[in-house]
Design goal:
CATH topology of the largest domain in chain A: Aspartate Aminotransferase, domain 2
Oligomer: heterodimer
Shape of chain A: globular
Largest sheet of chain B: 3 strands, antiparallel
Number of helices of chain A: 12
CATH superfamily of the largest domain in chain A: Type I PLP-dependent aspartate aminotransferase-like (Major domain)
Radius of gyration of chain A: 22 Å
Strand order of the largest sheet of chain B: 1-2-3
Number of domains of chain B: 1
Strand order of the largest sheet of chain A: 2-8-7-6-5-3-4
CATH class of the largest domain in chain A: Alpha Beta
Order of helices and strands of chain B: HEEEHHHH
Radius of gyration of chain B: 15 Å
Largest sheet of chain A: 7 strands, mixed
Shape of chain B: globular
Structural class of chain B: alpha+beta
Chain lengths: 408, 138
């Protein structure tokens, strides 16, 4: 089969909708357009039944005991906002302390910063070089005022998967609620809120071959019964936790996406891990001083993050972006001109943080694509190193760290 | 971010990539930026000591596409200018030529700094009467 360009390898940013998902969604835009809260006519009943089914499908995927524990949201960001702000407000009398991590995604970080301005205290637990959180660090961060621990299930940049079951056990022991941003994990690797002791969990459809614009927050109803303050006032939809008309077609798509993921996860994750390892081997065997970021085993099967010493990430992307869609932790790809805080949090030199490239495989990735991307990446990195004064100096034996740099 | 055609052209076909040996007669070297900031430029000029004209220029850059383009353009502009004239190149000229967006203006500033550093190094090494061929301090 001929290779079709450009190749999408940025699946941690979004994924294409699976055609099977789109098929089940379409009728809910047109002939089955009812409002799922219309209780008095068949249009509403039909919509409600569809949303109920979707809720069940997603609940099954994450091991929720009761579909009622799921609150549909507009996506991961809203779910995270609802979880953190909702718990913070509801449990304010119990305490004002939250434990988060240094590698959580922007939504979590920004909500935490807002809560800090409102008088809450947040401890950010650091991670090791491999991106793993040390359970003891969480334990030490806890105070009698701690009301919530929030930990990203799997990281969006380096793919490192945390030991959620251990963290869940600790949270239970201490009687503290545990939220997990599982937007990158759900549908890709086994997630089980019961077995892992997770009390609140955020997920989004568009990272698992569902549509953009819908996600969910899991809110435990038993052992313990978690209560959250709503962020939006209105019709009291979603059992009062999220007012606003449920986007029925999107919810239906989310449900179908979850069902498919549950069916294919075992095989798909094996296939993608094999392809990912191939890509990693292809690149690391041909480029010296290229370093894997994150944990070598405990990582998402479709995720690969490599830092290429002496070349800057955005310039690598620029050399590839007509053919391949990738992402970099380089400052130049962010609005803030700061390099990736996730890579920096690993204790990696900031020079290497600027040099990180993220590859994200997905359901429709092929071996031909992997070969092509691997080869082109190697070519571009070599070309840029020929242009790099740092590479030249390193080859001459200059210790780059010993130099006094004249920053602008 | 969309890149201007000129940035893409300089990125794909960078002019004057390379290095001069630092102690060749008439060579001035500027090394600016810092690896932890994600930008390092090395810019070199080779000046005819009799005429004061920059006969050749080379660069190597660690940085984004706009940084590479800024330094590539700088070498193009330096060639054939007198040392005095070269000092008049401003970062805003580079911004205008490459149509750099606001977030990339620092790339042009760095290129101007690199030009200045190279000129300064040249002057220290080659325009002082006591300049020695083995004087590598900069």
């Amino acid at each position: 089969m001929a290779l079709k360009l450009p190749i999408f390898m940025d699946s941690q940013s979004t994924t294409p909708v699976d055609p099977r998902v789109l098929d089940v969604m379409l009728p809910y835009f047109t002939e089955k357009f009812g409002h799922s809260s219309s209780r008095n006519h068949p249009f509403g009943w039909e919509a409600e039944a569809a949303v109920d089914k979707a809720r069940e499908q997603v609940a099954k995927l994450i091991g929720a005991r009761d579909p009622k524990e799921l609150v549909f949201t507009s996506g991961g960001t809203e779910a995270i906002n609802l979880a953190l702000k909702g718990v913070a407000e509801m449990y304010r009398e119990k305490g004002n302390h939250i434990v988060a991590t240094t590698i959580d995604q922007r939504a979590t970080m920004d909500v935490c910063k807002r809560l800090e301005r409102q008088g809450y205290e947040v401890t950010y637990v650091s991670v090791g070089r491999d991106g793993l959180i040390d359970l003891d660090e969480i334990r030490e961060a806890l105070t009698p005022k701690t009301i919530l621990i929030t930990v990203m299930f799997a990281n969006n940049e380096i793919g490192t998967i945390q030991s959620m079951a251990d963290i869940g056990k600790l949270a239970k022991e201490k009687g503290i609620l545990l939220h997990s941003d599982a937007t990158q994990a759900v549908g890709k690797i086994p997630v089980d809120v019961e077995a892992m002791g997770i009390d609140l969990l955020s997920a989004t459809a568009h990272l698992m071959y569902g549509p953009k614009g819908v996600g969910c927050l899991y809110v435990r109803r038993k052992n313990p019964r978690v209560r959250i303050a709503p962020m939006m006032d209105g019709g009291g939809h979603e059992r009062g936790m999220r007012s606003g008309t449920v986007p029925v077609p999107l919810a239906v798509g989310f449900g179908k996406a979850a069902e498919i993921c549950r069916e294919v996860m075992g095989e798909e994750s094996k296939r993608l891990a094999t392809l990912r390892n191939q890509l990693q081997e292809l690149i690391l065997s041909k480029v010296d001083e290229a370093y894997l970021n994150g944990h070598p085993e405990k990582r998402l099967p479709h995720n690969l993050n490599i830092s290429f010493a002496y070349v800057e990430g955005e310039s690598v992307l620029m050399g590839l972006n007509k053919e391949v869609a990738l992402s970099s932790g380089s400052a130049c790809t962010s609005a803030t001109l700061e390099p990736s805080y996730v890579i920096s949090a690993l204790g990696v030199d900031s020079e290497l943080a600027h040099s990180s490239i993220r590859f994200g495989l997905h359901r429709f990735s092929t071996e031909e694509e992997v070969d092509f991307v691997g080869k082109r990446t190697v070519e571009v990195v070599h070309r840029l190193r020929e242009m790099s004064p740092l590479y030249e100096m390193a080859k001459e034996g200059v210790d780059l760290k010993s130099l006094q740099w004249k920053a602008e | 971010m969309a890149y201007s055609d000129k940035v893409i052209d300089h990125y794909n076909n960078p002019r004057n990539v390379g290095s001069f040996t630092k102690d060749i007669e008439g060579v001035g070297t500027g090394l600016v930026g810092a690896p932890e900031c994600g930008d390092v430029m090395k810019l070199q000029i080779k000046v005819n000591l009799e005429t004061g004209v920059i006969e050749d220029a080379k660069f190597k850059t660690f940085g984004c596409g706009s940084a590479i383009a800024s330094s590539s353009l700088a070498t193009e502009w330096l060639k054939g200018r007198t040392v005095e004239d070269a000092g008049k190149i401003k970062n805003t000229d580079i911004v205008n030529e490459l149509k750099l967006p606001p977030v990339k203006i620092h790339c042009s500033v760095l290129a101007e700094d690199a030009i200045k550093a190279a000129l300064q190094d040249y002057k220290e090494k080659w325009t002082k009467a006591e300049a020695q061929v083995d004087d590598r301090s900069s």
